[in-house]
Design a protein that fits this description.
Blueprint: H1 8-14, H2 24-34, E1 38-40, E2 47-49, H3 51-70, E3 74-75, E4 81-83, H4 84-89, H5 91-97, E5 102-106, E6 109-112, E7 115-118, E8 123-130, H6 135-145, E9 154-163, E10 177-187, H7 190-210, E11 216-220, E12 232-239, E13 245-255, H8 257-261, E14 265-267, E15 273-275, E16 277-284, H9 286-295, E17 312-316, H10 321-340, E18 345-347, H11 355-364, E19 369-373, H12 375-380, E20 382-387, H13 398-404, E21 406-410, H14 411-439, E22 441-443, H15 447-455, E23 461-465, H16 470-480, E24 483-488, E25 501-502, E26 509-510, E27 513-517
Parallel strand pairs: 3-9, 17-18, 17-19, 22-23
Antiparallel strand pairs: 1-2, 4-8, 5-8, 6-7, 9-10, 10-16, 11-12, 11-24, 12-13, 13-16, 14-15, 19-20, 20-21, 23-27, 24-27, 25-26
Helix pairs in contact: 1-11, 3-7
Amino acid sequence: MAETQGGGQAARSAEAITPRAKDYGQWYLDVVRTAQLAEHSAVRGCMVIRPHGYAIWEKMQAELDRRFKETGHQNAYFPLFIPLSLLAKEEKHAAGFAKECAVVTHHRLKSINGVVAVDPDSALDEPLVIRPTSETIIWEQFKGWIQSYRDLPLLINQWANIVRWEMRTRLFLRTAEFLWQEGHTAHATEKEALEETWRMLDVYAEFAENVLAVPVVRGRKTPGERFAGALETLCIEGLMQDGKALQMGTSHYLGQNFAKSADVQFLNAEGKLDHVYATSWGVSTRLVGALIMSHSDDNGLVLPPALAPIQVVVVPIFKTEDEKARTIEEGRKVSAELKAQGVAVKFDDRDGVTPGAKYYEWEGKGVPLRVEIGPKDLEKGSLCLVRRFLLEAPGETDVQRRKRSKSFLPRASALASIKPTLAAMQAELLTRAKALREKRSRVIDTLADFERFYKEEGGGFAWVHWAGGVAEEDEMAKRFETTIRCIPLLEEIPEGARGEGKCILTGGPSAQRVLMAKAY
């Protein structure tokens, strides 16, 4: 049996996490802090992503990048700065981002009476917008890349940073600068462009469910919620533990709008000039926020093994110098064998840090599995495995669940069980998230039931019939703080709730239900 030492309680008290039930917003920030994911910077609204947080983003990048390349896309990079005249070419697009644009007007500083200030003589000939998104600058380049239908489809992705001057910010969820990927494609026909728009939405949905372990609803945005300049915006929506929705990815069909504004024409197979059809699509570091809010608990971060930078931490436990030498030697062997299996492992043999403090640190950072090695484990030829989380059993206390999370296995069996256990934990996280979504979803047919759901029952996903316009959407937002998250695909709507009905607000005929929720 593994032995433990004191010290964990002191660390736990110093890094206390506010319970979710008490203050969800503060709980979120406490998890970010305890897991050392990110922190506020000296620049208003901007964050510093710390190594553990960035390692999670890198794993997301790798998983997504592989999927993009499997669907024929190539990576490229485009400038951070966009001439104002380019952004203004697509009027609806420019208007949609106007309030969020940061603009560079000068290119030099100078010391004036001992004070460093903007050099008034360094004004740019034309202001430069720091990219809020890259459609306009990319399409200006595409004009020189596309001449014939033989150059199509053009499938480009960019990993970049974006600046949108948000007034209210929250780490990962909404910041003035954030990291993302943005796909931009050009096609010979509307049919091909629409197929690409749906294809990439499905890539996002598959990634969300199989890698992030977050179930999502696929659908279309209402006209008032579309991306500026798009003819159609598709999205995936996840439900967080507090019952609020989070838009986790979007895919846009742009028609010929950007091709026309940038004059991107090609000679088609019939020998006639035509404008290409376009798409764009993206996800961002907001997905790290989705991970936190979907899976984590009052002890800190919970990560799906597929995205955990460290999947297993190995901790030696000892009191004497002899025990130290033997447990560290075994810990190194165990770590090497796990690495040989392809497991991301950390061997924590730090001096001056108690096992309890180590347990708390790695639990707070979301490491899925811990291997404890004490003198008695060496004597028995066994290992102690501790899971970061378990599916809850009915009526089970936190103490009982923690006890159940530990297992003592013969060494060979323990090592052989690591990868299957990680796979099981990945699947269990999705199962748990689906169960939460089911618990907090309602098929609602009356405004009274809608009000009760959000004002008395805590809210969640509401499946309602809708026939209103923008004014009616605004009315629902003012009364209940809800929005239409999407017009879902038919297969996303619960069985038994499909088909026609009456609008929950106006009473008018409705072809199908929409998904409503409070949202981030």
